[in-house]
Amino acid sequence: MVAHTPRYAVVDVETTGFRTSEQDRVVEIAIVHAGPSGEVTGEWATLVDPGRDPGPESVHGITAADLGGAPAFGEIAGTVAALLRGRIVTAHNLPFDARFLAYEFRLLGFEVPVHHRLGVCTMAWGAHFLPGAPSTLAGCCALAGIPLDGNHEALVDARAAAGLLRHYIERAAPVVPWRHLFHTALDAPWPEVPDLGTPWVPRRDARTGPRIADASDR
């Protein structure tokens, strides 16, 4: 039935560090929408003002100057919730991304159904679909023949993880092993997070112009 057609939200976050317990925060987020076959249907990305220094520039390449005009997570939380609601959340190392997303929403007073047990981790499934591949995104992409140019940029990494998802779906055809998640994602209760309509600020927006496509297929 159309109502139960699986859809995916492939997520990547760049952060100021690795521990929510030490108040590390999201500094960039990207969400790529994919359909039942893993085909990309839309994408969205923005830098995020973490309310502190951006952390390891040597890793994610984001400076304090880059964050000028970037929204705080609370300003784009409604958009993020709308882009994730009703979809199977997917990421490479999903426990990391899910933990930070849940933490950011929790700071705003919202409990959201984002957890690694409720989604697809392309790193974890790599051992099944790409035997012998390293666990890294770059290693999995190299073995699967998926382009990865500029990793540790949220939209680049989310696109690459979406490519891995599609590769896995094709390898698993006709039935994916995470089919039990379809109804879970559709039925998961999401809080009503106000969408403020805050403009997003993609990386290098001021220098190269928008790099994102329409993500209106929510």
Tell me about this structure.
A five-stranded mixed β-sheet has the order 3-2-1-4-5, with helices on both faces. It has one domain (2-190): Nucleotidyltransferase, domain 5 (2-Layer Sandwich), CATH 3.30.420.10. It has eight helices and five strands; from the N terminus they run βββααβαβααααα. The chain is an alpha/beta fold and 218 residues long. The radius of gyration is 16 Å and the shape is globular. Strand 2 (26-34) and strand 3 (40-47) form a beta hairpin.
Short synopsis of the structure:
Helices cover 33% and strands 14% of the residues. It has 8 helices and 5 strands. The two termini are 19 Å apart.
Write the layout of secondary structure elements.
Elements: E1 8-15, E2 26-34, E3 40-47, H1 57-60, H2 73-84, E4 88-91, H3 94-107, E5 120-121, H4 126-129, H5 137-144, H6 154-172, H7 181-187, H8 205-208
Helix pairs in contact: 5-6
